[in-house]
C-alpha cells in the first residue's frame, strides 16, 4: 500500500513538474519567436540601408541621367584664331583677290602719274595710290596675324590691263586708264559685297566693311570722269 502511494505520489510530482515546464515552454516560445523575427527584420533593414549607401556612393556610369559626359569631338578650341587653318576657302579667296586688286590699283596709278598730263587723272591716280596702299597695309596685317602669305603678283587678268596701258600714250592713255579703273573697281566692289554677304571671319568682315565704301567711291569717280562730267 505504501509502495502504491509512493508511486502515485511520484507520478503526481512528475506530472506537476511537466505541466510547469510545458507552460513555461508555451509562454517562452512566442517571445523567442518574436525575438528571432525582430532580429531578422533588423538584419534585413541593415542590409537594405547598406545596399542603398553603396549604390549612392558608387560612380554613375557615363551617359546616365544626371551625369554630364563629354561630347565626341568637342575639344576646347585653341585660345587663338591666328592660324591659317581657321580660314575658309572663301576667306582665302577674298584675301587673295583684295590683295591683287590693291596691287593693281597701285601699279596702274603709278604708271598714270608717269604718263598722264591731265590734272584730274593725276589727282585720281594719286588718291588711288594712297587709299589702296592703306587698305593693302590693313590686309597685310590680317594676313600676318593669320600666318597667311598674300600674293605678290597681280594675276593674269590684271597683268593684261597693265600691259595694255603701257602700250598707249597721251589722251589714249588717260581714256584707257580711267576705263580700266571703272572695270577694276566694279569687279573689286562685287568681291567685297560678296564677302560681306557670305563671309564669316569677323576680322575680314570688318576690313571689307571699312573699305567697300571707298571702292564704291572710287568707282563712282571713275565713271563720272569717263562720262566727261
Architecture overview:
The chain is mainly α and 229 residues long. It has 2 domains: 1-50; 86-226, Ferritin, core subunit, four-helix bundle (Ferritin), CATH 1.20.1260.10. Helices cover 76% and strands 0% of the residues. The chain has 6 helices and no strands. Helix 5 (170-198) packs antiparallel against helix 6 (202-226). The protein is elongated. Residues 48-57 have a biased composition (Polar residues). This is DUF4142 domain-containing protein. Residues 48-86 are annotated as: Disordered.
Class per helix and strand makeup = mainly alpha
| Overall morphology | elongated
Highest CATH level, the class of the largest domain? Mainly Alpha
Main sheet attributes: strand count, strand direction, barrel closure: none
Mean pLDDT: 77
The share of residues in extended strands comes to under 5%
Tally of domains: 2
CATH topology of the largest domain: Ferritin
Round the Cα radius of gyration to an integer and report it.
50 Å
| H-E string | HHHHHH
- As a percent range, the share of helical residues equals over 70%
Question: Mind telling me which CATH architecture of the largest domain this is?
Answer: Up-down Bundle
Low-confidence stretches are 1-5, 13-83
**Count of alpha/pi helices:** 6
CATH superfamily of the largest domain: Ferritin, core subunit, four-helix bundle
Number of strands: 0
Distance between the termini: 166 Å
Brief rundown of the structure:
The protein is mainly α and 229 residues long. It has helices at residues 2-57, 89-115, 119-145, 156-166, 170-198, 202-226. It folds into two domains: 1-50; 86-226, Ferritin, core subunit, four-helix bundle (Ferritin, Up-down Bundle).
Amino acid at each position: 500500500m505504501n509502495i502504491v502511494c509512493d508511486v502515485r505520489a511520484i507520478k503526481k510530482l512528475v506530472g506537476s513538474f511537466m505541466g510547469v515546464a510545458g507552460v513555461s515552454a508555451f509562454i517562452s516560445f512566442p517571445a523567442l519567436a518574436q525575438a528571432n523575427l525582430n532580429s531578422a527584420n533588423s538584419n534585413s533593414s541593415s542590409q537594405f540601408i547598406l545596399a542603398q549607401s553603396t549604390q549612392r556612393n558608387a560612380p554613375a556610369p557615363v551617359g546616365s541621367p544626371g551625369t554630364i559626359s563629354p561630347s565626341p569631338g568637342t575639344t576646347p578650341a585653341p585660345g587663338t584664331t591666328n592660324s591659317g587653318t581657321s580660314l575658309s576657302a572663301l576667306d582665302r579667296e577674298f584675301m587673295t583677290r583684295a590683295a591683287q586688286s590693291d596691287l593693281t590699283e597701285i601699279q596702274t596709278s603709278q604708271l598714270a602719274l608717269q604718263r598722264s598730263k591731265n590734272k584730274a587723272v593725276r589727282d585720281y591716280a594719286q588718291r588711288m595710290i594712297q587709299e589702296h596702299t592703306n587698305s593693302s597695309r590693313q590686309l597685310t596685317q590680317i594676313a600676318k596675324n593669320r600666318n597667311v602669305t598674300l600674293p605678290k603678283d597681280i594675276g593674269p587678268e590684271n597683268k593684261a590691263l597693265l600691259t595694255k596701258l603701257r602700250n598707249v600714250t597721251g589722251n589714249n592713255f588717260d581714256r584707257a586708264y580711267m576705263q580700266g579703273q571703272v572695270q577694276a573697281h566694279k569687279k573689286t566692289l562685287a568681291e567685297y559685297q560678296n564677302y560681306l554677304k557670305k563671309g564669316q571671319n569677323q576680322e575680314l568682315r570688318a576690313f571689307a566693311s571699312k573699305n567697300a565704301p571707298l571702292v564704291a567711291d572710287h568707282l563712282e569717280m571713275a565713271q563720272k570722269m569717263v562720262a566727261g562730267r
